[in-house]
Amino acid sequence: MAAVTERLPVWRVYRDCLRAWRRDFWRLVALATMVLLPLIVIEFALYGVADISLTTDDSLSLWIVSIPVFVYSIESHHFLSGLIERLEGAERHGHPTPRLGPLLRDLPWARLFWADMLFTLLLVAGLALAIVPGVLVGTYFALVMPLINLERQPVLATFRRSIRLVRGNFWRVLVVWVPIWFVTTTVTEALGEMLEHLGHSQLVHMVAHLVPEALLLPLVALPSVIMTFELVDRDRHRSELADSRG
Description:
There is one protein chain. This protein is mostly helical and about 250 residues long. Helix 2 (about 25-50) runs antiparallel to helix 3, helix 7 crosses helix 8 and helix 9 runs antiparallel to helix 10 (about 200-245). Mean pLDDT is about 80; it is low at about 1-5. It has ten helices and no strands. It has a domain at about 10-105 and about 165-235.
């Protein structure tokens, strides 16, 4: 087995993210579209058909409409990490690319849901307290969603596992996910604004939201997936060395 260094190679994470994005571009876009489309259609129906605004002051509309849409928007983004983990894991280990049907049936949906809810709660609480606690939460738990799918451990055990894997690589994990998140978010918003200038219909509005996110959202999910593979491989290698010396 080749030697594995303890530190996370930032340059290789960036390289592998870009390679995976180019190699599986259309497959990743299809997965992102599948995840995002229900949310876009719901927003289109609310704004264009029912004429319900998610910024309405009516408390009943806020609870009935805004909260479920908000929850789905959070879940959809992070569920994509689970889908990408299976796709990139197959490529990384030389396995056949999984078909969508079996892939969807095999995902641990309940654990992904509750892990995502806990992660979001901690992140929102951290950002509400100050930027620094939010960054700490985002960094130490950056591996949670791919780990849920990769190792199939209980939710709380997966959060502890993410902390153990990130410990010693905190600044490297931070340097990976923050710039990619910032750049993709900025570019997504810029592309959306450009597309909205093509017309003022609700359909154009829907396309302006869907297309940029479907193109670039996989780049937001890929870093956590690639880092998870790298850090899990290093952890297993250290365990094997410890067992062989013992």
